Amino acid sequence: MGKLLKFPDKGTITDSAKAGRTPQSAAARAFPPEQGVPEAPPPNVIPLETPVQELPDFSTFHKKILEGDLVSAGELLSFLLGITHFQGIESARAYRFLDKRTGQAQEKVHNLFETLSEGRTNESLMLLADSFGISGSRAVLVLQHLKSQS
Question: In the chain, at which end, N or C, are there fewer CB atoms within 10 A of the end residue's CB?
Fold first, then answer.
């Protein structure tokens, strides 16, 4: 039992310990120090070569309305206002009706954001109802959503 095991090219266990060498790990043998260990990409980082899509905004929504594409406009609006797709399509219809009737829909949306940023909640609620036909508790939720986005 007192015999030491011999390894063909590494010497004995005690010889390497005496020489101050420690056995290399598999990672150290796979990536020698002169090469370095390759770094993993940080989590949740999009590589630069990945194209970034434009975020939808109200000008894109208005363009869809002018093109007559109520479904796409409603889907955009559902994203922008934090409402369901069905509600988005209904609100897009209300917006289109206002735009055809008065031509002031874009101006009302601009005023909505202005009053919202100034903290004039009651006026914002009225403009939300005029522009998109959204009122009551749903309108309050939409205003909260818009505030959280700005």
Answer: N
Amino acid at 52: V
> Could you tell me the residue range of the domain that residue 77 belongs to?
58-149
Task: Examine residue 133 and state whether it is found in any structural domain, yes or no.
Answer: yes
**The pTM of the whole model exceeds 0.70:** no
Residue 24: burial class (beta carbons within 10 Å; 0-12, 13-18, 19+): exposed
**Residue 123 included in any domain:** yes
The answer for residues whose C-beta is within 8 angstroms of residue 79's C-beta and 6 or more apart is: 56, 88
CA distances, 9 to each of 2, 17, 132 (Å):
21, 15, 81
Per the structure, the count of domains in the chain is 1
Q: What is the pLDDT of residue 110?
A: 92
Query: What is the DSSP-derived secondary structure letter of residue 9?
Result: T
Q: Is residue 5 situated within a structural domain?
A: no
Which of 133, 45, 36 has the alpha carbon at shortest distance from 81?
A: 133
Q: Give per-10-residue mean pLDDT for the chain (150 aa).
A: 54 50 55 57 54 70 92 93 94 94 92 93 94 94 89
Q: Which residue has the tokens 């009706």?
A: 97
